[in-house]
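STRUCTURE:
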């Protein structure tokens, strides 16, 4: 399972890098979706490491709830909701560049923070 956790972790890092590239190109919708993807892949990495289900959005939110309970860090939940907002922005395209940048910055910290839970 640790190997699969690494697969998701690697995908999360790659998506984060692509999100930064999309932002630089001014494609806020693609940046938003890749920002969401980076967060989701890191949640999957943690879930895989612990043997938790992670098949679908509801399962991802349950994993985040479990991580909040495990760590006591409520920010994890708040930032995951921010990442979900980026996901919504991919479909609705309603966020300003500034809001997308703020969201991506939070997702980047989220991804960095989950690194320790995957190891």
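SEQUENCE:
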């Amino acid at each position: 399972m640790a190997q699969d956790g690494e697969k998701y972790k690697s995908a999360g890092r790659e998506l984060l890098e692509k999100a930064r590239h999309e932002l630089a190109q001014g494609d806020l919708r693609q940046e938003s979706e890749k920002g969401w993807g980076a967060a989701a892949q890191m949640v999957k990495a943690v879930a895989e490491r612990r043997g938790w289900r992670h098949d679908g959005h509801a399962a991802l939110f349950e994993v985040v709830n479990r991580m909040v309970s495990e760590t006591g860090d409520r920010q994890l939940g708040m930032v995951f909701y921010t990442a979900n907002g980026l996901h919504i922005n991919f479909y609705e395209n309603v966020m300003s560049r500034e809001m997308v940048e703020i969201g991506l910055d939070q997702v980047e910290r989220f991804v960095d923070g989950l690194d320790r839970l995957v190891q």
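REMARK: The domain at 2-118 is CATH 1.20.120.330 (Four Helix Bundle (Hemerythrin (Met), subunit A)).
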